[in-house]
């Protein structure tokens, strides 16, 4: 097993730098086939950065197909608010180099989402999600309405058998990769 979450994060980030590939069209193709995406009118997602699987094509398609897309706004305490995506050209710079919507609807706006797609460095087969360590998404996922599908976006190699978990960690129900959707839990 791993000595700590911090050590595991370092290993996963190093692996992403080595194996980063264009994954946006793959995520979009997989997502478009999912009944949860087809049925949802409001979807919370995030704007990917650097070596993360690219969510841009998915966001563009969701907006073009008339969906309401909620994007996170990172607060100074690392909690997340949510705003309606106006389109990629209208995003504003946020904390830590993130791109954010210009209007914040508040932290509880995520409860209106019918599908939540969040970032992760890895997930395990039980649904344990490893983020970057700030707790932002654990707090946000705790506000999601019961029964709402929650997916973590990872590369295929980042679905692991087991990850360390803390009591505050919020599980996800599936992993969306550039090649497939894997049910967890």
TrEMBL record:
Presence of keyword ATP-binding: yes
EC number, as in UniProt: 6.3.3.2
InterPro entries on file: FTHF_cligase (IPR002698), FTHF_cligase-like_sf (IPR024185), NagB/RpiA_transferase-like (IPR037171)
Pfam families documented for this protein: 5-FTHF_cyc-lig (PF01812)
Protein name: 5-formyltetrahydrofolate cyclo-ligase
Cofactors, names only: Mg(2+)
UniProt keyword Magnesium present: yes
Family statement: Belongs to the 5-formyltetrahydrofolate cyclo-ligase family.
Keywords assigned: ATP-binding, Magnesium, Metal-binding, Nucleotide-binding
Record-linked NCBIfam families: MTHFS_bact
Signal peptide residue numbers: none
Residues in coiled coil: none
